[in-house]
Structure formats: structure tokens, C-alpha cells
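Because showing beats explaining, we think one record worth quoting, sequence and C-alpha cells together, and here it is:
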Amino acid sequence: MTLPGSRTDSHASSRRALLAGAVGGLGAWAATAIGRPGRAEANDPNDVVLGATNTSGTQTTIQNITNGAAVFKATSNSQGNAIIGVTGSGVGVNGQSGSGVGVLGETNTSTAVYGIGNQGVGIHGVSYATAKPAAVGWSGGNSTGVMGYSNNSSGLLPAAKPNTGVFGYAAQSTSSRGVWGESPAGIGIYGRTTTGFAGYFQGKVFTSSFHEMIEVATPLAPGANRARLFVRDNGAGKTQLCVRFATGTVKLIAQEA
């Protein structure tokens, strides 16, 4: 029997107070834990893991069904590639759009879209439209719209020409061709203008066949130090080959018999 006020009674009271405090603290922690969500430690095996190789036998789709914001963005803060598409024999990167742009490349000072074909075509444009081109080059700064450059050694691109739609350049040898137009039965190169020159050659001109002209009205006199060669009708159904000088004089070279 423990008498009140004894040492044994004092120890029992201390143990009861300590136990009550522990139970109260546990209850307070439990109440707090119930009020907040717990952290899940398990990983879904279907999650895409950063910094690792992820494999799948089916297509992975990320879709934005809320607004017009970008669905996916890849950023490289160094000189690396933001996105690399690799395939054995298919398409590395396929961009599709119902009415917009399928693939857009944009840069401030470098190349927006760069295509390399080690044994194939670097860039290939195809259009099945009846009134749209397969490829378009547009220079908003009044420079060259499309440049074709051929050189068997590394080097910088030639300077683009101002106000030029298409510029072709080749510098390998004397047999190099800046622009080659070929048509088995049609017209290899076609030039058209209303008031200017449909064709302008700054240098020698060589033809491996005949030069053919159609009858025209007698042209105006050319500028100084020039002459205009043409054919015309003499008014009686005969074709005349003539030349007109800067003075306005027309000289008959030959007339149809």
C-alpha cells in the first residue's frame, strides 16, 4: 500500500504525467497529418524519366486541349541540339498542320532550317497543289530569294545579290554552270518582261544551234553605242532582217526572196 505523499507515490505521478504528455503530442500530430496530403514515394512505371533512356512500343502523345499555347518545348542553353529526331529509314522529324505551318525554323543571325544529305537530298519540297510551288524563298530585305551554290571545297557563301529572285553560283572550273535549265522538248530557260530585257548577258554568248527571231514592229532607237537587231515585215509579206542604230537609222541586212 502506497501512502499519499510517499516517494513511491511521487514517482507514479511523474510517470502518469509523462505518459499523458506523450499521448497528447501524438494526437496533435495525427490531427495535423490528417489535414494535409501525404507525399507519394512510388513512381509510375509509365512515367517519362528525365536524364534516362525511355523505351516504348507505342506512340507517346502530349496534347493541349485547353488553349493555343505550345504543347512541348525543348531548350538547350549551350551549343547543343534542342531536339534530335533519329530513324533507321523513316522520317526523323514530321511536322503536320491542318491549315498552318508544319515545321517552322527561326533564328536571329544563323540558319533557320539546315538540311544535310550525305548520300541523299539535303532539302526536298513537294506540293500537290495545282497553283502552289513546292518551295519558296522570300527575301524581305530586298536581297536574294533563292541561292544555289556549288563548290567542291569548303568556303563561305558568295555574297547574295540585291533585288534578285534566284541566284546561281558555281566556281569549280571553266565548265561550271551557275544555272542549268533543261527541257527535252520545251523551253530550258524562259525569261519574260514587259518593258525591260527578258534576258541580259554580261559577257560572251555562245549558241550551239541557230538563233531564231519573230517579226516585230520596228523598235525605237537604242541608247548610245548600241544597235538593235530584229526582223520585220516589209509591208508586202516579206520578212526583213534589219538593224537599228542609236542615231535612229535602220539598215536592211537581208530580205526574204
About this structure: The chain has a mean pLDDT of 86. Residues 135-175 form one domain. DSSP finds one helix and five strands in the chain. The two ends are 156 Å apart (CA to CA).
